[in-house]
Design a protein that fits this description.
The protein is 46% helix and 11% strand. By secondary structure, the protein is α/β, with parallel strands linked by helices. It has 2 domains: 205 residues, Rossmann fold (3-Layer(aba) Sandwich); 57 residues, DNA polymerase, domain 1 (Orthogonal Bundle), CATH 1.10.150.20. A 7-stranded mixed β-sheet has the order 6-5-4-1-2-3-7, sandwiched between helices. Helix 1 packs across helix 2 and helix 2 packs across helix 4. The protein starts with a strand and ends in a 10-residue tail after the last helix. 30% of the residues are buried.
């Protein structure tokens, strides 16, 4: 039995962009790596994954407007900083980077979690994305790094509840007049739910589409073979210190004791396996 830590890279990169300290052109990079150490220290994993984002082709086929309302800008060179984070992780950290070109980070993180759960490993997913609630089980936990707390799985069916109320953040339209409370009420009464879905033309089809947009995709064998596993290296503290020195991350490097504490956190040692 191993302790597995799965980082939602997409979620954590954006969190680093909009929170933490302003370090000019390196703000996102600094905030990401400053926040990484306490997460790893907290969970003491024997294996760490950082899952990267692919193109949500399947969901775009279901809904061409999927996430279409989001406005993207690169005034802070976020795309460049994100690439630098990935490069530094690849070159200096014992963290397995994973990506599928045709699936979102969520789907691949959920796949990894289920893969390790089947081996009776203890898995922690780190993300503020509530869609991971559907992955919570006896040995899969969800930790919200913003609230710094674990997320409990609700008693009701999360996927159906969200399919009814919609998800504005992903541009998934819910049903008119259905909010959190009414969605829960419908879930508690199967007859009323059936009547609602079948009572108006188009409701059932829209509901099915929403469910498939929200539910994580289970990868078939061919899709699993297409997962990109980036080469993983041992911790390179010398090279990492040089990178952080060039970017003037003095509060991370700090005194020798501070730096040793930072790097020792990532010495996964004999517990790590690949």
């Amino acid at each position: 039995m191993a302790n597995i830590l799965i980082l939602d890279g997409y979620n954590l990169f954006y969190r680093a962009r909009y929170s933490g300290m302003n370090r000019g052109e390196y703000s996102t990079i600094f905030n990401f790596f400053r926040g990484l150490r306490p997460l790893v220290e907290k969970f003491d994993p024997s294996k760490i994954y950082c899952v990267l984002e692919g193109v949500p082709r399947r969901r775009l086929e279901l809904l061409k407007e999927y996430k279409g309302q989001r406005e993207y800008h690169d005034k802070d060179n976020f795309s460049g900083q994100r690439k630098e984070i990935v490069r530094i992780l690849k070159e200096y950290f014992p963290i397995q980077l994973v990506r599928h070109p045709d699936f979102e980070c969520d789907d691949i993180a959920a796949h990894l979690a289920e893969m390790h759960s089947a081996k009776n490993d203890n898995v922690t997913i780190v993300s503020s994305d509530t869609d991971f609630i559907q992955s919570i089980s006896d040995n899969i936990a969800l930790y919200n790094p913003v609230k710094k707390s674990f997320v409990n799985r609700p008693e009701y069916d999360y996927i159906i509840w969200k399919a009814l109320r919609g998800d504005a953040s992903d541009n998934i339209e819910g049903f008119k007049g259905i909010g959190d409370k009414r969605a829960k009420a419908l879930l508690e009464d199967g007859v009323k739910l059936k009547d609602f879905l079948q009572g108006t033309e188009g409701n059932l089809e829209k509901f099915r589409v929403n469910v498939n947009l929200i539910r994580f995709h289970k990868l078939n064998e061919e899709e699993q073979e297409e997962i990109e596993w980036f080469e993983t290296n041992d911790l390179n503290s010398i090279g990492l210190k040089e990178e952080f020195t060039n970017m003037k991350f003095n509060s991370i490097i700090g005194k020798e004791t501070t730096w040793n504490k930072y790097t020792n956190t990532f010495n996964l040692g004999d517990n790590q396996w690949f």
